[in-house]
Design brief:
By secondary structure, the chain is α/β, with parallel strands linked by helices. It is built from 11 helices and 8 strands.
Length: 266
């Protein structure tokens, strides 16, 4: 249970993005206010559930690619969200038990559940930082307590940059984080996109609920986060289309309004 100071930071009177997403992927760490807006948005745009589920599957495929095919042994997961099945450290350490993972979030709800992210194989290590995306240098400095920033890192920023209202600012935050990582590091991003009237309406309804707003962007802006990096095939695509496995149901979910990509720092 969270301590009193942490509990005081948790507002259960308004919907919350991590709890809302948790509800969509079948988790139990949410409140009635989150389920109410979730059900409202499902009635407007049922496809958002597919966005949540397929984005989670993309995380697994991307981490397996980095750990398995690229030999990446360090991951910096910014905008962690609430723990569910197959978190970054679980996927990475299943492939490479000596993987090190640092989770970063400054949300009291996520912090209250951080202990679930701090399990690790004996060979590896996990850590949790109560830190802010808006201060990339502080994030990198704190992460260096667990990660060796002279060696490649997989920077994971999934379904988080939509909370940054100004696109130029979001790009600058990504640039500053990648600037502190060495050649051979990879950037992994996924975000919901303004690619259908339904998704745009869902975003507007969510933002009107009193929750911290989430802004859906054109696909070209998602691609812009990878400027200066070497895009890994198949490039910036809908999340089910990024190297799908046999069980990912790409045909059924191909129209999801979320795009992703993986880029390598040369």
């Amino acid at each position: 249970m969270p301590d009193n100071s942490l509990r005081a930071r948790i507002d259960t009177s308004k919907p919350h993005s991590a709890r809302f997403w948790n509800y969509f992927v079948g988790g139990k760490d949410n409140y009635e206010v989150d389920r109410e807006i979730g059900d409202q948005i499902k009635s407007i745009f049922p496809g958002l559930v597919d966005v949540a589920v397929t984005s989670r599957r993309f995380l697994g495929r991307a981490v397996r690619y980095l750990a398995g095919e690229q030999g990446v042994r360090q991951f910096l997961d910014v905008g962690t969200g609430l723990p569910t099945a197959d978190n970054t450290h679980e996927v990475a350490q299943r492939v490479a038990p000596d993987s090190r993972i640092v989770y970063v979030d400054n949300d009291p709800i996520v912090l209250a559940h951080a202990s679930a992210l701090l399990t690790s194989t004996p060979e590896g290590r996990t850590a949790y930082l109560d830190a802010d995306l808006y201060d990339p240098e502080a994030v990198l400095k704190a992460a260096a307590g667990t990660l060796d920033l002279s060696r490649p890192v997989g920077l994971m920023i999934l379904n988080t940059l939509g909370h940054v209202a100004e696109y130029d600012r979001a790009r600058e935050l990504v640039r500053r984080l990648m600037a502190g990582l060495p050649a051979g590091s990879h950037l992994v991003i996924s975000d919901s996109t303004a690619t259908s009237e339904g998704m745009i309406a869902a975003s507007e309804a969510y933002n009107a609920s009193g929750a911290v707003p989430y802004y859906v962007r054109p696909v070209a802006e998602i691609a812009g986060f990878f400027d200066g990096l070497e895009l890994v095939e198949p490039g910036v695509v809908r999340v089910p289309e990024w190297r799908p496995g046999p069980s990912d149901g790409v045909e059924a979910a191909a129209a999801v309004d979320a795009y992703c990509g993986v880029g390598r720092k040369p």
